[in-house]
Design goal:
Number of helices of chain A: 5
Distance between the termini of chain B: 48 Å
Strand order of the largest sheet of chain B: 3-2-1-4-16
CATH class of the largest domain in chain B: Alpha Beta
Strand content of chain B: 5-15%
Strand content of chain A: 15-25%
Helix content of chain B: 25-40%
Radius of gyration of chain B: 23 Å
Oligomer: heterodimer
Largest sheet of chain B: 5 strands, parallel
Number of strands of chain A: 7
Chain lengths: ~130, ~500
């Protein structure tokens, strides 16, 4: 990232690198002190939701790269359907990048958790 | 020869396909129908009058010379019987299992009016299975054809793509098939359950095609992994046969609740990814105790019978009457024998639950004014609302066209539904690119896709050999029949 960016800020949960905590703190600071034209969030769903909530009041254009469950990833299963501004879209063919302020993150979170117990079973078998 | 062939009396009953009992078969995913023995197949073949008018051939979308293959079967010449079918259909063991014969060849059989028709489908399956048990080595393309050959890319390895690949390889073209998934077969693999179409049947018919020198490259999503323009620069012609895999939903409240599947997702998890074996397989599937399936086509019945095999109680809701269900009638009988609760003239209005599906609210439907297809448009019957408690809902009401290829190629003309525009030769608006199968029809059957694959191969051959004015492809009457709008089952 450093080769592609003017400035890289790192946040880690335990503070072993960069600031301690989530990316929200450094992002809040950047937005407060700099003219930001666009925010791009790629990562775990709770992080993307938090980024969207942070930038919503200031209307900073924000893109989230969604990661719903997909079976084929080519438009055939519909498992990755998500409401964007009240419309059903398939993340695989219509996305995966969407306007983060239009994403129904609560629905996405519920759908991502559908196979939590099966994921634990697979993890216990060492195939997670 | 023909006068010495034995004939059964007209009154002789049609040989029944041996079936596993319903209680036995719902316990696993093994095939339901068991196939005829040679003796039974020949016995049935002898019911055929080998009539010269042969209306059955008119009923076949690919025009298999049915009396000629049946005559070969009577003579015990199974090599010839297979060769006759293969002139027209690369997938006899597949189509002998999944075709709606009762609406096609068998419906027009001269015996049908007063007796039962000849079991043409069972005989086709028998011949296809005989070839699987007795495979032949590759037959090299004729040297003459090889001198005029070019390179052709086929996108999609379903019935249309495989058929075009076979025909083009036989004509001497170098054919590469690009498949998005990790194994070839397309809808035959991901869409049709193993209890109707076992994997080895598909694989062995595909091997008959790869023996001709056809290369199949899996895990290649044209439109993503590679572009159509790139294929156009690397190949002399391209045939698009990516199918109509985009699932349609009802647009009712609650369809995004956890526990609502599209028919395609549910079937893919089981058919393609082996979810019924989880955790032995990597992909899980959930049914819970009670499943409600919505739809009336083959996919909805496949979902219902798959859910039964996963141990659930299953209700199938269809908005019109049973007679209007757009599927093989045999599959409805099978589903009911196995214990599917069929609720016709019924539709869901809302799926309810707190995050996860808890119930489906339904209403009964009565006939209303005729719709665009001329059928009575179902309208809700006031006061007939009721609720079905359930854990899973599967929506299998039809398909749209997958936009992946066309979105990556703006010069490919599509209609408002995303159906790729083609002329009567299956040529698209992009030079050297042809399209067929569900991608260009908007959704139909395996045999119609086979028919389109054959037409495309003829057109591509004509295009590449410079015979633009010699594109006379005999089209079955089906091919000019307008298809009903996608999603309106």
């Amino acid at each position: 990232m450093e080769t592609a960016c003017d400035e890289v800020r790192i946040a880690t949960d335990d503070g072993s690198r960069g600031t301690r905590g989530t990316v929200i703190d450094p992002l809040r600071e950047v937005i407060a002190t700099t003219q930001v034209d666009r925010v791009i969030a790629v990562g775990p769903m709770p992080m993307m939701k938090a980024v969207a909530e942070l930038t919503r009041p200031s209307h900073v254009p924000t893109v989230a790269s969604l990661n719903p469950i997909m079976v084929d990833g080519t438009g055939m299963c519909g498992a990755c359907r998500v409401h964007i501004d009240g419309q059903v879209r398939f993340a695989c063919v219509d996305g995966p990048e969407f306007d983060a302020h239009s994403v129904d993150f609560d629905e996405l979170a519920a759908r991502l958790g559908m196979y939590a117990s099966e994921e634990r079973t697979a993890l216990e078998q060492g195939r997670g | 020869m023909a006068e010495r062939r034995p004939h059964r009396p007209l009154s002789d009953p049609r040989v029944a396909m041996p079936m596993r009992g319903p209680q036995d078969r719902v316990g696993d995913f093994d095939e339901v129908s068991l196939g005829l023995s040679l003796a039974a197949a020949q016995h049935e073949a002898e019911r055929c009058r080998l009539c010269t008018r042969s209306p059955c051939v008119d009923g076949c979308p690919v025009g298999i010379d049915i009396p000629r293959f049946i005559a070969a079967l009577m003579d015990g010449d199974l090599d010839r019987a297979h060769a006759v079918i293969s002139e027209r259909n690369a997938l006899p063991a597949v189509c002998g299992r999944v075709c709606a014969m009762d609406e096609q060849c068998e419906r027009l059989c001269i015996l049908e009016k007063r007796h039962d028709s000849v079991a043409i489908g069972s005989l086709e399956r028998f011949v296809g299975d005989w070839r699987r048990a007795n495979p032949v080595e590759a037959t090299a393309p004729s040297p003459n054809a090889a001198t005029t050959a070019g390179r052709v890319a086929v996108v999609g390895s379903g019935p249309a793509g495989l058929t075009a690949a076979q025909d083009l390889a036989k004509m001497g073209y170098e054919v590469t098939v690009f498949e998005a998934l990790h194994r070839p077969g397309g809808v035959l693999v991901y869409g049709i359950p193993r209890f109707r179409l076992p994997l080895d049947v598909i694989d062995e018919e595909i091997q008959n095609i790869t023996r001709l020198g056809v290369q199949i490259r899996t895990n290649h999503v044209v439109g993503r992994t590679t572009s159509l323009d790139r294929l156009c620069s690397e190949f002399d012609a391209v045939f698009l046969a990516t199918g109509a895999g985009l699932p349609i939903f009802l647009g009712i409240p609650g369809e995004s609740l956890v526990g609502v599947y599209s028919g395609n997702e549910f079937l893919m998890r089981v058919n393609l990814m082996g979810a019924h074996r989880f955790p032995e397989s990597d992909t899980p599937v959930r049914t819970g105790h009670r499943v409600v399936v919505v739809g009336g086509g083959d996919t909805s019945l496949d979902c219902a019978r798959t859910a039964l095999r996963l141990g659930a109680d299953v209700s199938l809701l269809y908005r019109r009457s049973r007679e209007l269900m757009p599927c093989r009638s045999e599959e409805i009988d099978h589903a009911i024998e196995e214990g599917v609760d069929l609720q016709c003239e019924t539709t869901p209005v809302r799926i309810v639950g707190d995050g996860r599906v808890a119930a489906v609210e339904c209403t009964r439907l009565g006939p209303g004014a005729p719709d665009a297809s001329g059928r009575a448009s179902p309208v809700p019957v006031p006061g007939s609302e009721f609720t079905i408690d359930c854990d899973t809902v599967i929506i299998a009401i039809g398909f749209g066209v997958n936009p992946t290829v066309s979105r990556s190629a703006p010069d490919l003309r599509v209609d408002e539904r995303g159906v790729v525009w083609t002329d009567e030769h299956l040529a698209t608006s992009k030079r050297g690119v042809f399209a067929g199968g569900d991608l260009a029809t908007g959704g139909a059957t395996v045999i119609l896709a086979v028919a389109q694959g054959r037409r495309a191969a003829k057109s591509i051959d004509a295009y590449l050999s410079g015979r633009h004015h010699d594109l006379a492809v005999s089209a079955a009457p089906w091919l000019s029949t307008p298809t009903p709008p996608v999603g309106l089952i």
